[in-house]
Write a structure and sequence with these properties.
globular, 4-stranded antiparallel sheet
Length: 183
């Protein structure tokens, strides 16, 4: 296999790909450089909104270009704000603090985190209630900001297609600034 075509990429994204195709893709000596663009094309075709997808963050979340902004957006179209701010701050959150609450989602219960030492946080989209992330952390631990990709550098240096709104300001964690305005 020299290149991954759009049909095969759609199967991969939808989870309908044959094991043999996965094996063949993994064995490709050189990953074709167009694979990322094909991947974005497939994601964009499935999106329920028009904003340009810049990068996928997880199964439900994307960084998109919206006017002069770069925001995090869910499959359902719900916007979680500036991608430089921890998107979890815009989610509905369920915290499991007791052993009984944790045992509801862990089986066998011996695999459950110890509620005396940990809490389980579940993050849900306010628009469609899709579960977006789970953290098992000590109580009081700050929300984990999972990814702040340097999109400008990625597009410019790796993909050789610089973004038209490139700026050093894009790669800066704005979470603390956002939180300070809430007070």
């Amino acid at each position: 296999m020299e290149q991954v075509d759009k049909g095969l990429m759609e199967k991969l994204v939808n989870g309908d790909i044959a094991d043999d195709d996965v094996t063949e893709m993994r064995r490709m000596e050189k990953k074709d450089h167009e694979r990322f663009w094909t991947y974005l094309e497939v994601l964009q075709g499935a999106a329920k909104w028009d904003e340009k997808i810049l990068m996928r963050l997880n199964d439900h979340l994307y960084i998109v270009a919206k006017g002069k902004e770069r925001i995090v957006k869910c499959d359902c179209g719900h916007e979680l704000g500036d991608y430089r701010v921890n998107w979890k701050l815009s989610c509905n959150i369920r915290v499991r603090e007791t052993q009984q609450q944790m045992d509801e989602v862990y089986y066998p219960s011996a695999a459950s985190p110890d509620a005396e030492w940990m809490e389980l946080r579940e993050y849900f989209c306010p628009g469609c209630v899709a579960q977006l992330a789970v953290e098992v952390v000590p109580p009081g631990y700050p929300m984990i900001f999972e990814a702040l990709p340097d999109l400008d550098r990625f597009y410019r240096e790796y993909m050789n297609r610089p973004l038209n709104d490139e700026s050093a300001d894009w790669f800066e964690d704005k979470t603390a600034e956002f939180v300070s305005k809430l007070k």
